[in-house]
Every structure is written in C-alpha cells, then in structure tokens.
Amino acid sequence: MAGAFKEKLAAAVRRSDSLVCVGLDVDPGRVPAFVRERADWIGYFNAGIMEATADLVCCYKPNLGFYEALGAEGWQGLRQTLAAVPRDVPVLLDAKRGDIGSTAEAYARALFEDLGGDAATVNPYMGFDAVAPFLAYGDRGVFVLCKTSNPGAADFQDLPCEVSGERRPLFEQVARAAVGWNRRGNVGLVVGATQPAAFRAVRAIAPALPLLVPGVGAQGGDLAVAVREGADASGTGILVASSRAVLYASSGQDWQAAARAAAAELRDAINALRGAKSDGARAIP
Amino acid sequence: MAGAFKEKLAAAVRRSDSLVCVGLDVDPGRVPAFVRERADWIGYFNAGIMEATADLVCCYKPNLGFYEALGAEGWQGLRQTLAAVPRDVPVLLDAKRGDIGSTAEAYARALFEDLGGDAATVNPYMGFDAVAPFLAYGDRGVFVLCKTSNPGAADFQDLPCEVSGERRPLFEQVARAAVGWNRRGNVGLVVGATQPAAFRAVRAIAPALPLLVPGVGAQGGDLAVAVREGADASGTGILVASSRAVLYASSGQDWQAAARAAAAELRDAINALRGAKSDGARAIP
User: Fold this and answer.
1) Which of B6, B8, B61, B96 is catalytic?
2) What is the largest CA-CA distance in chain B?
3) Which of A128, A149, A173 sits opposite B100 (nearest CB)?
4) Nearest-CA distance A70 → chain B (Å)
C-alpha cells in the first residue's frame, strides 16, 4: 500500500469532488437475487458497486462483521472485494477492534498487513495501549470511536466524566485523548450524524482531526448539521458514510445505475452544504 | 451446540475441579519449531495443547486476533481448532466485538452460529444495542469488558462518571448496566487480575455474575486477590485465563507435558486459594 492514508484520501476527495464513503456491507438478503445466485456473489456485487461509483466517492469502507457472519465464503469475498478496489481509492476497514497490546498488534497486522487496509476503526474502551499498535502504522488512518450513531451511544458515551477536575461527557474525554494520541498525524474520530450536538463539541476539541460520519440514510442522521459543524475550515475533514442507501438502491437489473444515482445524490447534497458553509468560496478542484 | 453455556461450564468445573481457562492464542514465533513446520501447525498445536490439558481446565478461549493476523491460514486453523475441542469443554471466543445493532447481529451470528462458540467477549462502549444481539442468544455466555488487565484500562475505565447523581468509576457503571442486561442469566464480566481493587467493587455490584479473569502469568496479575475477592459464595464464579504460560511452557519435544504441568500448577494454586477462602469447607466434587 503506497503513500500515506491522509494524502491518498485528500487526492481522492479532490479527484471525485466528494466526501462520500460507501460502506460495503454485504447482506445476502438484500443483494439482487440474480447476483446472489452466483458462487462469487460477494466479490461480484462489490466490484459492481465500485465500478458504478468509483468516480463519485473518496473512500470504501467494508464492515468486517458482515463478512465474518458469512464464514469462509465471507472472508474469500472480502479478499476478492479488496483486490477489486481501484488503486486510487483508500479502503477503511470498519472493524472497531480493541484489545490488550499483544493482541492489538495482531489485529493491526491483520487489518493493515494481511488485508492491506489504508485505515481502520478502533474502540477506545481499553485505553491507549489498545490503540497504540494501530497508531504505530504512521501511514495508515486510525479512526477512534467517539460518539457513535446508535441509540446506545448515550449509555456510556454521554456520562459526565471527570479528568483533571474538568467534567465533560465521556465522548469528549475520548476526543481529547485522541488529540494527544495524534503524534503521527494519523488519528481520526467517529461521530454519528445522528448526534448533531456532538459535532460542535468535538470540533472545539479536535478542529483538525478527520471525522468518519456514519448514520445518514437508514439511521436518519442530520446531514446538514454534520457537514456544517463537522467539516473543517477547508470544507473537507469529514467522510460521510453511506451503505444500505447506495448498495441496495435497487434489487433489479438497474442495481448499478441505482447505486450510482444514490451516491451522486449524496455527493451533491453534501457539496451543496459545503458550498453554503463557505459562502460559495469553496474552490472547485 | 447443545445445552446452555452456564450449565456446560458448571459441569466442566465440577468434572475438572478447575477454574482454569486456557487461552488458545497461537503465535507462530512461539510454537515449537518442529510443530511450526507442519502445514496444519495451528490445528495440530492447539489439538496437542487440548489433548494435554482437557481434564485440567473448564474452558478454552481462542482470541480471534491471533488467527486474523494469520489470514486465510489462521481462519482455517481456527476452524480445525474448534473442531478438536472436546464436546464437554465450553469455548469462549475472545473477540471483544461491539458495533451498531445490524452489525452486532452479524458478529453474533459469526461467533455463535458460524463458529459455534459457547460464549464470547463484547465491548460495552457503544452501549446496550451493541450488546443486545449477543444477549439474545440466551444459551450462550456474553462477557462484557469491565475492568481490563492492560495498563490503558485506567485511561477511561477509571474515570469518575455520574449516573443518576451517583459518581463511580466508569467500569463500575458498566458493571451496574451489565447486571441490568442479565435478563436471560447469560451475562458475565471481564475483570483483570492486575486490578486487585476492582474485584471487591465489582462483586459488590454483581455478586452472581461469572467473571473472566485475564492477566495472571505474563501480565503479572494477583491470583490470590482474584480468587479471594472474585470467586462467588460457592467458590466458583471465576474463569482464570492463562495463555502464554501454558501454551509456551516449553518449545522442546516436551511441549505437551510442560503445558500440562503449567495448567495443573495453576489449577492447584487456584484450588489452594479456593480452599483457603472457604476455610476448607469447599466440597471435593
């Protein structure tokens, strides 16, 4: 994997004029039936989605859970999928791993070396040494879960927590720690689009860290707030993840055209908001 | 997988008179060289370890990170390993997963259906709905990370957090939540043996939940405190995990005998402490 994630992502954003990150979350119950019938349906479906959308997106994000659920077939399909990703589009492996040092090293090797991901998501609950083996790959991106898009995010991430006498919600303490972990410039944060109030808080703490933003589409997140409050000063700095709305836009013969239309629509909606944010001053690449 | 995890574990504890859970964490740099040379070294090594220790342990715990790091070979080796586990010893899949509902469902399917685990570890950071799909398998055990054995455990798990006006460290709030999640009687907690003060706090909150206790051996945890404070009223209720100290007790031709001796030593040390705890009143099965 040549080149640092950050530069590869910036180049992909410029080339595609897009902040869309398509989540490649294969679901045997949702792919078109005539695709599902093929022995190589996982790789075939994802390659078809990428063929239809590669010029409209800045990143692809397979969530490993969907592949693990399919067993040996899933792992083979994931490898076929990764082999089919265009060389100039970075791959973010959404795995949310977190374990003690020696195991975290194994997971980092699995994601960055064996699977060759440009970036990965990690879980901060176990603290710095569970994340450090990922951070050690200075040319890969490490997105730390901060405020997630699901309802249960409130259970612990919102609890008022005290550090050095200062009380803030746990997710803000995680964001502060992540800023301190960013010695190699490769840290990002996950902030769900369903969490509008979190963007301003996180941007106040971490103005320059890239944000992975799940939760638009099926989860009902607020795209406008995510872009207005989440994008950095240059109008970029966020990756807006969309999976089901793009992948399963149609279950008919037009599945690729429908996926392309859905990705284009999301790109244009984000760009309209980016334009509004910068009062029309956003440079067209 | 027949029978509930809880009963299968209780039967294994009685049969082996042991609270030892051997972590099957394969490491190509540590297995004996003459084993490593075999094409099927992963399955062969683990089967050899299990052959040498099955009557001395109550559980086997493969950590998925070590298998994922080995790619396709690792997954095949994990399947061979799982196929070789004696039917009466439960398998705890140490995966520490946590994701939004639909993905958590996929991970739960992967661990409990595709791989057939009797129990699994999960990460609580994303809250209830990230754990619920695991809890829905009432016949499987779900061990929630609470106070982990690594140094970074202090980073967030120790932060004073407020719930309903009551300030407690985050790991205690997680323990309280886990008690509430235990509607099907299948919840456990992970508390590292390196965290002696945590056992009393966790047992005050969750007197009856089984505890998975990593961190003895290489990590330097305090076995005596873990057993004295962690074991429940019946002198059981903890699973003491040991991996490297058993698996890699010898890299010579005596690797199986050495693994057996290490497992027996740990079992006996725990049982001596259990005896001390109950003032000799512990029934010999």
Assistant:
1) B96
2) 60
3) A149
4) 7
What is this model's ipTM? 0.94
Q: What angle do CA A9, A12, A15 make, to 5 degrees?
A: 150
Q: What is the pLDDT of residues B191-230, one digit of tens each?
A: 999 999 999 999 999 999 999 999 998 788 899 999 999 9
Spell out where chain A has E strands: 20-23, 59-61, 92-97, 119-122, 141-147, 160-163, 166-169, 187-191, 211-213, 238-242
Angle (CA) A99-B29-B121 rounded to 5° is: 25
Nearest CA in chain B to A154: B127
Cβ atoms of residues B145 and B122 within 8 Å: yes
Residue B20 β-bridge partners:
B240
H-helix or E-strand spanning residue B240: strand B238-242
Q: CB neighbours of A125 closer than 8 A, spacing ≥ 6?
A: A98, B123, B124, B125, B145, B148, B156, B157
Count chain A–chain B contacts defined by CB atoms under 8 A: 182
**Is the full-model pTM beyond 0.90?**
yes
Where do the structural domains in chain B lie, given as residue ranges? 5-274
Name the residue among A68, A115, A152 with its Cβ closest to that of B107.
Answer: A68
Q: What spatial distance separates the first Cα and last Cα of chain B, rounded to whole Å?
A: 25
Chain B residues touching A173 at Cβ < 8 A: 156, 159
Active site residue B8: no
Which CATH number describes the domain made up of B5-274?
A: 3.20.20.70
Question: Residue A158 and residue A171: Cα distance in Å, rounded?
Answer: 6
Q: Do A148 and B66 touch (CB under 8 A)?
A: no
Please say whether the beta carbons of B4 and B139 come within 8 A.
yes
Which residue in A has a C-alpha nearest to residue B131's C-alpha? A152
CA distance B247 to B269: 18
Contact call for A69 and B160, based on CB within 8 A:
no
Token pair for A257: 């055209």
Q: pLDDT tens for residues A230-242?
A: 998 888 899 999 9
